[in-house]
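Field reference: sequence -> structure
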Amino acid sequence: MVTCISDRDIERFIEEDLPYGDLTTHLLDIGNHTGRIAFSTRELTTLCCTEEAARVLQRCGAVITSCMPSGTNLASGIQFLAAEGPAQALHAGWKVALNLLEYASGIASRTERIVAKCRAVNPALSVVTTRKSFPGTKKVAIKAITAGGALPHRLGLSETVLVFKQHTAFLGGLEAFLGSVAALKLKAGETKIIIEAENIDEAILIARSGADIVQLDKIAPPELADTVAAIRNANPEIIISAAGGINEANAAEYAATGIDIIVLSSVYFGKPSDIGVAIQPIL
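Structure field:
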């Protein structure tokens, strides 16, 4: 899996935890002892950031002896990353690597479960995630959701056109704005025009406007199914996405409504994966 996490990012992660050296290892005088570190799953896990965890350990002075790729699904009790080197290197990289693995794999695992539930109901459904990741963690978050089988909905404001009521409020309201969709499509060129609707009436107006995608916000599945049918009747070609309050517990119900895309943020927030670490001397 291609990563955009740079060497500078890796060094920043290490510096946050090791700004002035490891006082404990120094005082115990064990830094030059040779050892081995191994990471293993403690539960069903979709791995993520194994490559970055390995780079952390390498940057600290360890040598990687095994590493499974991000996106690998593992049962409990499987070793997936190991390294050898001086104790000072192993201890320096230990928690930084573990934090990356647990948080990223937690997101990847939640994503994988949601994608699997949705695809079981609607194999053609796309699962995409919002830009609501915690500030400073986007690179890790995006790698994690792709490891779990999803894609980003919007990487940022620069490459997408998504029109909310907060935009149309400056243009005289939704109905006034919809008259300019054709002109907007000419301006945007190859970029799709997405417009958010909060109810069935808005959704039908958007479907008839020539927009590429109508995004339905915070509509419960029973009402959403009726809304989807009405939109299809108004414009069979438009793509329909749903957002707002979608999580692992209800994603399959949303997938069954006939939408094309599920948009969610819930995968970013939850329990990290439980990953075990063993550090032992090599005698």
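Note: The chain has a mean pLDDT of 96.
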